[in-house]
UniProtKB/TrEMBL annotation, chains A, B:
Coiled coil: none annotated. GO terms for molecular function: lyase activity. It comes from Lentzea jiangxiensis. Residues 24-225, 259-458 form the dTDP-4-dehydro-6-deoxy-alpha-D-glucopyranose 2,3-dehydratase domain. This is Oxidase EvaA. It comes from the Bacteria.
Length: 463, 463
C-alpha cells in the first residue's frame, strides 16, 4: 500500500485532476462568483443587531454569549522596542474545525474544496477547506443550516485521520485563538454538493499563486499535510524545485537538529517576558471610539468596525457583526538559502500578544510596513530592507493572499519567498529545513499562521 | 565519540561511582542532615511578614510583587463529575530553572546533586538538582546569596545542552506554573562545594527507592534525560528489566504511532471544555479563612497555611511564607503491560485546572484517595481499585516521595508501577511505550509532573 505521504506527493505532481482541469476550475469558480453574492456594508457600531456594548467595560459581546467578544488587552514586554501598550483584541475561546476531506480518484488523492464567500473577503468568493466551522457554527447557536460534510470530522471512525492538530491564528488580533486543523481521508462514495469541487494537491498548489483565491483556512490546513513524500519523488538535479522537494524528505539533515531548534525555542520563550491581561475595552489608551470605528489615534494598525452582511449561499442570509479592519497590506517574507545542497528557511521566534505560549516561529519578516511611520526606529524588524529590496531574480513565490474573512475586513498580506546566497545571523532567528517545520506542525503553538501559509507556498514549489 | 544517550545509559548501569559509593553517600548525607536544620513553625496567616492579604480581594501577595500570589480560581468543566468549583491556587508566572550539571569522571557521566532542605519537606533534607532557582531567587529579590553553579545554566556557551524544556507542575495547586528543566554537560573542572556530590545515574536510580529522598525537582529533570541509549545496552532476555530497557530504544514500535498519540491528545483537549478564571481569593465558595488556614468546609483537599522558617544552609536564614498543605497522601500509579514483548504504560490524558493547555498525560491513577469520601461516586477515577488492590507480585516500583517542599507542606505521594497482563480500554487512556513518553518530554505540556516522576522511576528499572 502506498503510504499517505507518498500519495500526497503524487497528488502534488498531478495538475490535471480527475474531475476538473484548471481552465474548467476557473470557469466553474467564475460561474459561482456570478450567482453568489455577499454585500457587506459598513454600519455604525451602535447599529449592530444582537451585539451589545457592555456599559461597564465597553466590551462588544453577542447576546448569546457565544461567537466572540471584542475586549481590551494590556501587553507588557520589558526590553521590547515598544515595551508596553494596550489594544482591542478578539477573544474567541472556542476551538473551531478547519477540515479538508481527501479521497482517491483514478489513483490520485483529491481534496474537497469549497467556494465560500466571507464578509471580509475583498473579492467575495474564495476557495476554502471542506469544512470551516466555529463551535457556535456547528452547534448552531445562530439557528442556521447544517454544516455540510461536518460529520466526517466529528466522527472519524472508519476513516483515516491524516492530520489533527490545533494551531494558533493571528496573535496580533486574536487572544489565544486556536482552530483544529484536520485532514481526513475517506474511501467511501462522497456526494458532491453545489459549491464544492475535487482538486489534486498539484492543482491547489497552482491556485496558491492567484491573488486572493486560496483562503487562509485552506492554507493553514494544507501546511499540516505530512509532506515527507516529496523527498522520495524529487529529482537529483540542483534546480530550485528539486532542492526544495529533497529538503522535504525526512532523512535530510539541516544545520540544526530538531532538538537544537526546540531548545532555542525554549530559550526565546523564557527570555521574552511577555505578560498580557484582558482589560475592559474602554480602558485601552490612545484608541478612540467614534460612530463607525474604534481607531488608534495615529490611524495605523487596525480599526474595530461593524458591518451588515447580506449573502446568498451562506447559512444565515442577513446579519451584522463587528470586524477588525487592518490598515495597509501586510508583508510576510520567508528568506531561504541552500546550505550544503539542502534548502533552509530563516525563521524567527517571535512573540505576539495573543499567543498562548509567548512565541512561535514566524516568517523572516512579518509586519505591516506602513505602521513603522508611527513606531520607534528600533521596532523596525530585522531584514525588512532585505525583503523589500529583493531583486526579482531572487523571488521564488509572490502573491497577495487574504487572511480570514469571517473576522477581518479586507485583510491582505503579500507572501514572498526570497532565495539568498548569503549567511544571515541573529539570536532570534534560525535556519530550519522544510521537513523540520512540518515536524513541528504535528504539534500546536510552534509555527504561526503566516509561516504556515509560507510552508504551504514552499510545498507548492516542489512540483 | 560516544553519543550522549549512550553515555547516559552507561551511567545508569554504574552503581559504584567515581567519588562516593552508596554507603559513603548515605554517611555523607546523614552527616549533613545532622548539621543542617530547618525549623518550620506553623503561624497565623496574619503573622506573615512581608506578605499581605489584599483588603479588596483577599489575595495573599508578597510586598515586592514577586515570588508568588495565592489567588482564587473558578473552574468550569461541563460534563465532568464535578462540573464547576472554585478553589485557592498558587499563581507563580515566573519560569524558574531546575538544572542538573553532568560531567564525566573515569569514563562515566556523573550528576551533580545537592543536599537541600526545604521548609515543606517532611524530613528536612532531600536530594535536589544542582540548581533549583526561581527567577526571583536568581535575580535576588530576597537579597540572599548567589545561587551556586547557576552560571552554567544561564550561559551555556562552551557546554553541551543535553535537555532544555519548560515543564508544568501540579495543575491542582499551581496556576500555569512552568519550570525550565535543564541538563548541561561540562568538560571543564568544576569545584565541588559543600552540600553537593557527584553520583552516577545508576546511583540516583537506586536512591529513588528510598522514601522522601530524591526531591520532585530532581525527578522531573531526570525524566527529561534522553534515555534511548538504554535500548542499545539491554539484554535479549524476557525479564522485566530487559523488556523495560529495550522499550526505551527509539526503534521499538508501540501499539500506537507517535502521530496517533498526538491526534488523540488533540481530541481530548478539544473535547474537554475546561475554562478557568482567576478570581479574588475571598470569592472562593465552601472555603473558610480561620486564624491559621484557608480550609475547605469538608476538611479535604488542602489548606492554605503559613509557616515561619529558620534554616541553616539556605540563602536567607529566617523568613515566613504561605504554603499549601495537602490532606492525605497522594497516589500515582502507572499500570504497565508487555504487548508483543514491548513494555507499554497506560497513561491518561486528563485536565487539571492549572494547566496552560487543558490536558496532559498523567499516570493511570492519580488522586488523593481520602478525597473520595466527599466527592460524587462518578468522580472516583477509573482503575483506582486495580491500583489499590494490586497483588505484591505485580508491583515493580513502590516508594513514597515528596512533592516540592518550597511551596507545599508535607506533600507526599505513593508512586507505584504495577505490571498487568490484561488489556485495559478507555477513551481517555492509551498504551504508550516509554521512548514515546521521552519523545513527548522534548516538548512542553505533554506529560504532567507526577507522570514525569514515574518515567524517572521506570528508567530506574532498566539496570
Amino acid at each position: 500500500m502506498t503510504s499517505i505521504s507518498t500519495q500526497i506527493a503524487l497528488s502534488a505532481h498531478d495538475v490535471e485532476g480527475a474531475h476538473l482541469d484548471l481552465p474548467d476550475f476557473h470557469r466553474w469558480f467564475a460561474g459561482l462568483a456570478d450567482q453568489c453574492y455577499t454585500h457587506t456594508r459598513r454600519i455604525p457600531l451602535d447599529a449592530l443587531d444582537g451585539w451589545h456594548t457592555l456599559p461597564g467595560s465597553g466590551d462588544i459581546v453577542h447576546a448569546s454569549g457565544k461567537f466572540f467578544t471584542v475586549n481590551g488587552l494590556d501587553v507588557d514586554i520589558p526590553g521590547n522596542a515598544v515595551p508596553h501598550w494596550t489594544q482591542p483584541i478578539i477573544n474567541q475561546p472556542e476551538v473551531g474545525i478547519l477540515g479538508i476531506l481527501v479521497k482517491e480518484f483514478g489513483g490520485r488523492l483529491h481534496l474537497l474544496m469549497q467556494a465560500k464567500p466571507e464578509p471580509g473577503n475583498p473579492n467575495g468568493l474564495q476557495l476554502s477547506p471542506t469544512v470551516q466551522a466555529t463551535r457556535s457554527n456547528y452547534t448552531r447557536v445562530h439557528g442556521g443550516q447544517d454544516v455540510p460534510y461536518l460529520d466526517y470530522f466529528r466522527d472519524t471512525s472508519g476513516h483515516t485521520v491524516v492530520a489533527d492538530v490545533r494551531q494558533s491564528e493571528q496573535g496580533a488580533w486574536f487572544y489565544r485563538k486556536r482552530n483544529r486543523n484536520m485532514i481526513v481521508s475517506v474511501s467511501e462514495d462522497v456526494e458532491l454538493l453545489d459549491g464544492f469541487c475535487w482538486l489534486t494537491l498539484g492543482q491547489v498548489h497552482r491556485l496558491l499563486l492567484v491573488d486572493d483565491l486560496i483562503n487562509m483556512d485552506a492554507r493553514t490546513v494544507l501546511s499540516c499535510l505530512p509532506f515527507a513524500g516529496a523527498g522520495e519523488l524529487s529529482g537529483t538535479g540542483d534546480g530550485f524545485r528539486d532542492v526544495v522537494a529533497r529538503s522535504c524528505g525526512p532523512a535530510v539533515r539541516g544545520v540544526h537538529s530538531e532538538d537544537e531548534i526546540l531548545r532555542w525555542i525554549t530559550d526565546v520563550r523564557v527570555r521574552t517576558e511577555l505578560s498580557t491581561r484582558l482589560i475592559p475595552l474602554h480602558e485601552v489608551r490612545d484608541w478612540h471610539r467614534t460612530e463607525y470605528a474604534i481607531t488608534h489615534e495615529t490611524g495605523r494598525f487596525f480599526d474595530v468596525m461593524a458591518v451588515e452582511v447580506r449573502a446568498s449561499g451562506r447559512e444565515v442570509r442577513t446579519w451584522t457583526q463587528p470586524m477588525i479592519e487592518p490598515h495597509g497590506t501586510g508583508l510576510a517574507a520567508l528568506v531561504v538559502r541552500r546550505i550544503g545542497g539542502v534548502l533552509h528557511a530563516f525563521v524567527r521566534a517571535s512573540a505576539e500578544p495573543g499567543f498562548l505560549d509567548v512565541a512561535e516561529l514566524s516568517p523572516t519578516v512579518q509586519c505591516t510596513p506602513a505602521n513603522f511611520d508611527v513606531l520607534p526606529a528600533a521596532a523596525r524588524p530585522p531584514f525588512l530592507d532585505l525583503a523589500l529590496n529583493a531583486p526579482a531574480s531572487s523571488i521564488r513565490f509572490d502573491a497577495v493572499l487574504s487572511e480570514e474573512g469571517g473576522r477581518f475586513f479586507h485583510p491582505r498580506t503579500r507572501y514572498v519567498i526570497i532565495e539568498v546566497d548569503e549567511d544571515l545571523e541573529h539570536p532570534d532567528f534560525r535556519w530550519v529545513v522544510p521537513h523540520q517545520l512540518v515536524g513541528l506542525l504535528r504539534h500546536s503553538h510552534y509555527v504561526n499562521v503566516q509561516a504556515r501559509t509560507l510552508v504551504a507556498c514552499l510545498h507548492s514549489l516542489t512540483s
